[in-house]
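User: Hi! I have a protein structure encoded as tokens and I'd like to know what sequence might fold into it. I'm fairly new to this, so please keep things simple.
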């Protein structure tokens, strides 16, 4: 075989691989940070390796059957703060903050869908450990945690574009929870903690609190996305969602989905209502004050006199 022929075949292989990658585009554009500043007397290279491994695992795994172009990938971020690490056993304890965003139609603005901190993250990791994706079995607690939050990010993103569009991915997240619960690992048990991963799943799938998913759709697709056409109509649609939010509160006042909504949306709401009329501001304030009485500083900003 001539060198020219070999070169041509190499180019064709590269082209076909690139075309296949585009066709089978993965879903996540995830930035990962592992903060090990609390850990001393340990070779920090292991945390660099962990960060790289998690980044590749999340961004290279094909999580769904849907086709994602490069510019359609879900923008998200994971921050793992390491509180304890035993180098002899590989046991790591820490906190994981999960954030995800989605674009608002016909704008450069990214709105936050998730801003959640998991405070019960425990797993074993030694340098050189491979993170293996397996949808049918639990490879490790680390991959189970990553799988759960990947599916949650995707489910909420799909919900924001279509009513109950995230159904298949909540079911995948539920399967992760079922497998993990049988493992005995912490952070998965039902009723163990009102904000653990089992509680998060229940908040979005139990009948009493699942209206939070309808809120997600109406708030984003019928509210924010419509503000490019009419700011007032889009904002009014968002205002209507707070009655649904109150229904969730009345059913389960301690549901983690309520704090997740607050942490993702309250700063944004200050901006959304900055130019609303005072009656609308007062209406929003009264409902949200009943649900979040400890958030007076931000609620007062929502109620402030309209900008002129």
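Assistant: Happy to help. Inverse folding works backwards from shape to sequence: for each of the 308 positions I chose a residue that suits the local structure. Here it is:
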């Amino acid at each position: 075989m001539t060198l020219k022929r070999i070169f041509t075949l190499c180019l064709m292989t590269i082209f076909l691989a690139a075309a296949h990658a585009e066709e089978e585009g993965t879903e996540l554009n995830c930035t990962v940070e592992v903060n090990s500043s609390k850990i001393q007397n340990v070779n920090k290279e292991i945390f660099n390796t962990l960060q790289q491994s998690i980044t590749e695992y999340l961004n290279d795994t094909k999580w769904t059957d849907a086709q994602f172009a490069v510019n359609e990938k879900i923008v998200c971020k994971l921050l793992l703060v390491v509180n304890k690490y035993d180098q002899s056993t590989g046991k790591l304890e820490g906190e994981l903050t999960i954030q995800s965003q989605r674009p608002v139609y016909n704008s450069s603005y990214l709105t936050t869908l998730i801003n959640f901190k998991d405070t019960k993250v425990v797993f074993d990791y030694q340098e050189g450990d491979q993170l293996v994706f397996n949808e049918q079995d639990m490879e490790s607690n680390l991959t189970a945690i990553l799988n759960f939050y990947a599916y949650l990010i995707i489910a909420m993103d799909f919900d924001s574009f279509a009513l109950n569009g995230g159904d298949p991915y909540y079911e995948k997240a539920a399967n992760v929870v079922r497998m993990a619960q049988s493992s005995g690992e912490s952070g998965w048990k039902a009723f163990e903690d009102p904000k653990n991963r089992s509680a998060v799943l229940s908040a979005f799938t139990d009948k009493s609190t699942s209206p939070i998913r309808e809120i997600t759709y109406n708030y984003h697709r019928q509210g924010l996305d419509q503000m490019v056409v009419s700011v007032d109509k889009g904002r009014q649609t968002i205002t209507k969602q707070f009655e649904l939010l109150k229904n969730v509160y009345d059913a389960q006042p301690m549901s983690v989905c309520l704090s997740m909504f607050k942490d993702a949306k309250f700063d944004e709401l200050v901006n959304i209502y900055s130019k609303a009329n005072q009656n609308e501001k007062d209406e929003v304030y009264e409902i949200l004050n009943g649900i979040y009485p400890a958030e007076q500083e931000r609620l007062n900003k929502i109620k402030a006199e309209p900008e002129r």
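A useful reference point when you look it over: Residues 3-23 form the longest helix (21 residues). Feel free to ask if any position seems puzzling.
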